[in-house]
């Protein structure tokens, strides 16, 4: 296939799909060895609860999922307003107000969600949703999972982080605008719901489907084996009651491990409707860190993907 510039329907971002670049020298996936968890020194392991900030929530006793404020927060509920700059048109700042929580996904000393049972992943995901619901007044809630040091995990024990912000980031606002514009253009259509319906009809980028969700490689995949999980029936907010897609999420991570031979470094996040979104649909994105961002990506915002999503979906679908 000749290189193509594709536009992501949800974000408007462009990706160059160039599968032939996978054959260039040095283009193979060099996945670093997995991190390990030492329960004796790991602050997220049972018995070391005193090493974390005060507990906000736990599931069961002994606990199965545990939540506390981040010890080194990016957002704080009592953040002070910065002094006003003399040239406000050039230099603006606002307090980094909000909440920044850590959700330990399991007591098990493992590094990846794929290493847990499906039941435990479902329990962790339900806790993600409960904590997002606890911050329903935030303008934007962004839940992430970073797996492996190479993907930004400072501690190896599997955990999620929740950022509850009092502003809507530009990338999320752009998606909100695209959902709204699509609804106007189609007289009430839901952008992601219609996208899922069309992808299911075509089948070429579908990886798996269950009763709750659809797993697919997005048309304009930003990285090799980029995956998106979307609900079978459109719902704006992940935190509201209804299916979470947790079982299919677990399946997706196991498929990645089976295809690559090891759980890769990855970033995962939950996109839910921000404030002001009259039309939206939640989704979960998974982006393995198999290649490096370089000058093209950093300088232009255009990603370069060396595995076509159709090929990635076919390989993962067969597993």
Features of the shown structure:
319 residues; HIT family, subunit A; nucleotidyltransferase; 6 helices; GalP_UDPtransf1; alpha+beta; 21% strand; 24% helix; transferase; 10-stranded antiparallel beta sheet
How would you characterize this protein structure?
The chain has 319 residues and is an alpha+beta fold. The protein has one domain: HIT family, subunit A, CATH 3.30.428.10. The chain has helices spanning 118-134, 170-185, 191-202, 246-260, 295-300, 309-317, and strands spanning 4-7, 14-17, 55-59, 65-69, 98-104, 140-147, 159-165, 206-209, 213-216, 227-231, 266-271, 283-288, 303-305. The protein has a 10-stranded antiparallel β-sheet with strand order 3-4-5-7-6-11-12-10-9-8, sandwiched between helices. A 3-stranded mixed β-sheet has the order 1-2-13. Helix 1 packs across helix 4. The longest helix has 17 residues, at 118-134. It is globular, with a radius of gyration of 20 Å. The two termini are 24 Å apart. The mean pLDDT is 95.
* Count of beta strands: 13
- Give the domain tally: 1
What share of residues are in beta strands? 15-25%
Query: Could you state the CATH homologous superfamily?
Result: HIT-like
Separation, N- and C-terminal Cα atoms: 24 Å
Let me know the average pLDDT.
95
Shape: globular
* CATH architectural designation: 2-Layer Sandwich
Derived from helix and strand composition plus strand pairing, the structural class reads: alpha+beta
Rg over CA atoms, rounded to whole Å, is 20 Å
Give the CATH level 1 class.
Alpha Beta
Largest sheet: 10 strands, antiparallel
Low-confidence stretches: none
Helix content: 10-25%
**Any idea of the CATH topology?**
HIT family, subunit A
How many H/I helical runs? 6
Protein name: DUF4921 family protein
Domain Galactose-1-phosphate uridyl transferase N-terminal: 3-169
Biased composition (Basic and acidic residues): 48-59
Pfam families: GalP_UDP_transf
